[in-house]
Fold this protein.
Amino acid sequence: MRIAVDAAGGDYAPHETVKGAINAVQELGIEVVLVGRQSVVRRLLDKSPDVTGISVVNARQVIDFDEHPMKALREKPDASINVGIDLLKKGEVDAFVSAGNTGAVMAKALLALGRLNGISRPAIGCLLDTMASRPPLLIDAGANADCRPEHLLEFAYLGSLYSSSILGIASPRVGLLCNGTEEGKGNRLAQEAYPLLKNARGINFIGNIEGHDIVRRIADVIVTDGFTGNIVLKTIEGFCDDFLNSVKLIGRAFSSASRMRGRELLNEIGLTAWAKKMDYTEYGGACLLGVNGTVIIAHGRSQARAIKNAIALARETVAHGIMERLREEHDGKTTGS
């Protein structure tokens, strides 16, 4: 398996990206193709001369976070996002991972790879690894700010297939994120999407769920528009960051009053496991579902561990044949309708 990684995208690229790639090939048994400025990436790799399984493809340009996605893609044909997704299109790699400009990644994926049959709006599916053995999948987590009811139905199909493949859930429970559990609650989008989800075949729709239900593990797939989903995701990340900082402070306080080191004491009282669950670097990235290829979008502030885990998510997605399943099921659904 060969996975292309954007070595130029992200707040900590290329240094942390290269570290994450090195960790990935050592721990996961895969090949990584780093896409970025070859001279810079090579110098970083030379610091670990014993590492094998990493190659470099030159990309001289970088798309910054503040650039307009389509304009940047046109004006920077040799940007790492353009080059990396083109490798995926040509079949030279099995997946592409980027912590760069999310809009540019999505736009290039759509242009180069195309949509699955029956899918009008690809969506970002993000596992919310918060206090659950099998984390719920939030979809859409930020690809589509404005949606129509039928888009949410597509998200439900995509999310159900992804959740069942990655987490092994036979019939994932699908909930529509709303401001009330009763049918008829919500804005116009939620009210019009509800009957589509309720009457859809092949979806285990359990009705509306509220914000506090997210961490209660009521639904396996949480469906919403990308505007709402991204706010939910960033809110959870902010809370988790604050929690992790609090854990560190607790560890320091305990270590000064005890003979045990802070980390050992936190592990003893069970806070280490909680902290790990609430660390976004543990899940690494989110899958862009609905395009003809495996594309993983990592957090812009990803460091080495997050990059490694984003690569691991790409490996799992490819290994489970999720893109093939999505193509087959959506081709069947389209021809059978």
Remarks:
- The longest helix spans residues 226-257.
